Amino acid sequence: MAILENGPGGQILFEAHAPQAPGAARFVFVNALTGNMFAWEAAVAPALRDAGFGSVSFNFRGQDGTRFSPEAPLDEAALLSDLNAVLSAAAVGPKPPILVGLSLGGLLAAKAYLAGAPAAGLVLINTLREPGPRLDRIGRAMRRLMASGGPRLYLDAMLPLLAHPDFLAKARSAYLNGDYGPLDPAHGHAALLREAESVSWDLDYARLDAPVLVITGLHDRVFLDRAAVNRLFAQLPQAEAEAWDDAGHLVPQERPGRLVASLTRFAQRVALGAGPVGVEG
Fold first, then answer.
1. N or C, which terminus of the chain has less Cβ within 10 Å?
2. Are 14 and 36 in contact (CB under 8 A)?
3. Cα(124)–Cα(136) distance, integer angstroms
4. pLDDT tens digit string along 39-64?
């Protein structure tokens, strides 16, 4: 892993590996707002590297192992700055990478591409959503849960609505153990959550002219609105969709093997210049 300086008093944690197979793609993984790179590095990124692909994973300022200046807001502009800094510093190579974003990470990947960041394709995992009162209420509730009881309370309350029952059963020993406490307002996650209101979910999906793979976990009972996903997907010029009935919001952790297989197939189609194969599920 390496440290990248970005912004006043800011440091980003990242890990970059070049492709080992001739002509293989490199995947750049973009975290959700309060996620971290280890969600990718636990299984998905290593498996792709074993198959010859390259990978770049990183933590935004404010996420684990990073540093940020309290005077510098961790708003949308800062997050996009971090993503672009990593794309430049990680020596992505002569071929544009495939950007893979989870939740808000997919939104940031799409916005970076529309602003000129190179990408051979985009994978949007549980990203497609329309702004409105429901999402606003969810965001505000998340911030209040964190402020009152920290990440433990948030996960104990929300994880049953976010993940597939199989994942919940495996992770049961790690939850419902109490020990709640307010999230320190100076913590990076607190700063990211405060600035989340600045992030606009309005996106001109019709301008995403790169190949796009949309993956939707059907057990996401918090963010998923299937009608909204269908409306936004229909705007994408060259996209394919996979609807997974065995996963929820946390796809890289819930179904890493299936995600590796889907990313591999998508990279092969991008390399061949093949068109989308349709909608699954």
1. C
2. no
3. 21
4. 999 999 999 999 999 999 999 999 99
Sheet containing strand 121-125, strands side by side? 2-5, 11-17, 54-59, 26-30, 98-102, 121-125, 212-217, 239-244, 279-280
pTM, two decimal places: 0.94
Residues 6+ positions from 205 with CB-CB distance below 8 Å: 110, 128, 232, 233, 235, 236
Compute the distance between CA of residue 146 and CA of residue 155 in angstroms, rounded to an integer.
Answer: 9
Is 11 within 8 Å of 4 (Cβ atoms)? Answer: yes
Structure tokens belonging to residue 278: 């349709």
Helix, strand or coil for residue 213?
strand
Q: Which uninterrupted H or E stretch holds 123?
A: strand 121-125
Q: Residue length, the chain?
A: 281
- β-partners of residue 98 are 27, 121
